[in-house]
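Page 37, continued from 36.
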């Protein structure tokens, strides 16, 4: 009976956390919906040669606005969503683990925002200019708002995720799953993998691929340094687990 009660209590605990996360996302998406027209205007990057956007069906403008609102909801509500996810694991963590993982939430959010901001300000104008250049002098732009916002969202969100690389590597190093020495030895394979990821996640042009690969390389090198600081210290030869010399 106690086991059934404890299971029910645990499911109720999970349900409350999930509902809070969903409510936070819904509220953030509603706020994003209100600001979506202004954000759409800022995303048009006229300096890249984009002359304007059109909508091709009565519902496209509304659907595009909802789609952008959902993306903005993730960007705005992510800190609270991460806090609720963290709360799910609180019962199985000790006090030190709770303190350390809670402190990581602002860092995770800051890196995500930094990745999205980097994509929007540094990479998106270059990618749009490059792609529009294929239109030449004989093709006229008629880019629909739905297609364009889908492109921007799919283009920028991967940057936010990939900027989380240092947090992931440091966590794995702290758990002893990854060793900093192994990361350094596998640098050439990481370089190849980074360019493959950049080719998959960006439009098919060299400029945007390099613009994604370059910060990923910097983050990888920074991750190696951070992993060396975070990795648990191994006992010196001849020392026991308690730090004393073996007899």
């Amino acid at each position: 009976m106690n086991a059934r009660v404890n299971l029910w209590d645990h499911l109720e605990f999970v349900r409350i956390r999930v509902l809070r996360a969903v409510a936070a996302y819904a509220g953030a998406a509603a706020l994003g919906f209100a600001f979506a027209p202004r954000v759409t205007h800022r995303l048009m990057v006229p300096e890249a040669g984009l002359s304007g956007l059109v909508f091709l069906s009565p519902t496209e403008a509304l659907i595009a606005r909802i789609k952008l609102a959902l993306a903005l909801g993730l960007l705005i509500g992510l800190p609270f969503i991460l806090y609720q996810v963290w709360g799910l694991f609180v019962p199985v963590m000790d006090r030190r683990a709770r303190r350390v993982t809670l402190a990581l939430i602002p860092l995770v959010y800051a890196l995500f925002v930094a990745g999205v901001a980097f994509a929007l300000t540094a990479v998106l104008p270059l990618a749009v200019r490059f792609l529009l250049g294929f239109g030449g002098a004989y093709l006229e732009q008629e880019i629909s708002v739905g297609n364009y916002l889908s492109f921007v969202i799919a283009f920028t969100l991967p940057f936010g995720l990939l900027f989380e690389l240092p947090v992931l590597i440091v966590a794995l190093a702290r758990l002893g799953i990854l060793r900093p020495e192994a990361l350094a030895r596998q640098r050439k394979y990481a370089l190849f993998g980074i360019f493959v990821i950049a080719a998959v996640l960006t439009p098919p042009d060299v400029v945007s691929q390099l613009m994604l690969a370059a910060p990923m390389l910097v983050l990888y090198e920074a991750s190696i340094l951070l992993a060396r600081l975070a990795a648990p210290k191994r006992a010196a030869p001849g020392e026991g687990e308690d730090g004393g010399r073996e007899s």
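The chain is about 75% helix and 0% strand. Flag for discussion at group meeting. The chain has two domains: 7-142, 164-231.
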